[in-house]
Amino acid sequence: MIKEHILEKQKRVRQKIIVVASSVFNKYGFKKATIEDIAKTAGMGKSSIYYYFKSKEDIFEAVVEQEAIELNLELTEKVINTNDNPKEKVKNYVLIRMKFLKEMVNFFEALKDDYLRNLPFTIRIRKKYDKQEQQMLSKIFNEGVSQDIFYLNNIEFTALALVTFLKGLESSLIINEEMEYADLEENLDRILEVIFHGILK
C-alpha cells in the first residue's frame, strides 16, 4: 500500500513536470529553455527534476509524446468514434488533425526545427504516430468499403498514401505559419475531390 502511494505520488510529480515544461518550452523554445527555468516554474530544485528526467532532451521527449497522445485522443473522440459517414470522417480527420497540430506548439516545433527533427526521439515518436495514423485511417476506409462508399483494392496502402499527403500539408503549414484554419477548410473540399475521384475524366 505504501509502495503504491509512493508510485502514485511520483507519477503525479512527473506529470506536473511535463505540464510545466510544456509551458516553458512554449515560451522560450527548446534551445533557450533550461532545466533551471523548468525547476523554477515548477517550484522544485534542479536535483528533483533530474530524479525524474536525465536531461532537457528527455523532458522535451515526454512533452512531445504527451502532445501526440492528446492529438490521438482528439481524433479518436471527434472522428473515429462518431456516427458520421466515412467520407465526412476523412474530411473531419484532416481538418481536426491540421488545426490541432498548429496548437501543439512543441510537437509543431519538433517538426519544423532541423535540429529537433533529426533527434532520435523525434524520429521515434513520429514513426509511432505515423503507424497510429495509418491504423485510424484504415479503420475509416474499412467502414467506407463495408458501406459501399469507397472502392479500395488496398486499404493499408491508401492509408499510407494519405498520411504521406498530410505530411505535405504539414510542410505548407511550417513554411507558411500565417496559413489560417479557414483557408485550409476552404480548399480541403477541392483537395478531397482529387483524392476521392482522381484527375481522369
Comma- or semicolon-separated keywords:
single chain; 201 residues; Arc Repressor Mutant, subunit A; Tetracycline Repressor, domain 2; 10 helices; 0% strand
How does this structure look, described?
It is a single chain. The protein is an all-alpha fold and 201 residues long. The chain folds into 2 domains: 1-53, Homeodomain-like (Arc Repressor Mutant, subunit A, Orthogonal Bundle); 56-197, Tetracycline Repressor, domain 2 (Orthogonal Bundle), CATH 1.10.357. It is 81% helix and 0% strand. It has 10 helices and no strands. It has helices spanning 2-28, 35-42, 46-52, 56-80, 86-103, 105-112, 114-117, 120-146, 155-175, 181-197. α1 (2-28) crosses α2, α4 (56-80) runs antiparallel to α5 (86-103) and α5 (86-103) packs parallel to α9.
Oligomeric composition of the shown chains: single chain
Q: Any idea of the CATH topology of the largest domain?
A: Tetracycline Repressor, domain 2
Structural class: mainly alpha
CATH class of the largest domain: Mainly Alpha
The total of beta strands comes to: 0
Percentage of helical residues?
over 70%
Summarize this, please?
It is built from ten helices and no strands.
Write the layout of secondary structure elements.
Layout: H1 2-28, H2 35-42, H3 46-52, H4 56-80, H5 86-103, H6 105-112, H7 114-117, H8 120-146, H9 155-175, H10 181-197
Helix pairs in contact: 1-2, 1-4, 4-5, 4-8, 5-8, 5-9, 5-10, 8-9
